[in-house]
Amino acid sequence: MPAQAPVLVASDLDRTLIYSAAALALTMPDARAPRLLCVEVHESRPLSYMTETAAQLLCELGDEAVFVPTTTRTRKQYQRINLPGPVPGYAICANGGHLLVDGVTDLDWHASVTARLADECAPLAEISAHLQATADPLWVRKHRIAEDLFVYLVVERELLPEDWVKEFAVWAENRGWTVSLQGRKIYAVPKPLTKSAAVREVARRTGACLTLAAGDSLLDADLLLAADRGWRPGHGELADVSWTAPAIGALPERGVAAGERILREFLRTVRTPQ
User: Fold this and answer.
1) Global pTM?
2) Fewest 10 Å CB contacts: which of 31, 35, 126, 252?
3) Which of 65, 112, 96 is nearest to 200 (CA)?
4) In this structure, what DSSP letter does residue 87 have?
């Protein structure tokens, strides 16, 4: 494929390409479990993994397409990850709030995002204060503000009242914010803060002829809808509600096996885009 018209591959990371020990879903007999590669260490402990086969596939993908890690993680959290393959020239952090170019924030992009948030949504301070006032310390473990853009809670899922999440989501919706429950984290994110907007900017800069995407959560839906082709694993928020759309592949695999399958789909499409 001509260099001036590359394929852009934008993928979520956590529970899409990389997996914590708790999310691996190794349901096969132990003797048949895949070999794993640790791709993230936090506080001197291994934290995230992919299969060795997935690591090889990602190396191949990085050589044949513009691979763009696209995550809700903060920049600091993203920089802990050591993915195999070529170092990505572009990465999207904070759900689109930061566009990294060769590892450095594009300040013009960040300024345009923050200006839009100020115009279109209730302020972060209002959302954070509401969480502080209504979330029960019995089940909240951490209250975090990420990059001065959005907020999330780390919770004990078994103690979390389901009705609380629904009520908070309605309250936030009326203020221009989206709520997403992912594992032990509850995210509240301004609606204009999207992965898709940042991916479109990378596509513009690279002149990409085709955009592929993958993700597992509600915060990935806009990314999948904006791509020419997309895939979601058999686990996560989107799978839980059987979410799909034209040009979206709903894969049956769950856990780390889904990450491997997604990379196979990316590579197959990059090599035979028609």
Assistant:
1) 0.94
2) 31
3) 96
4) P
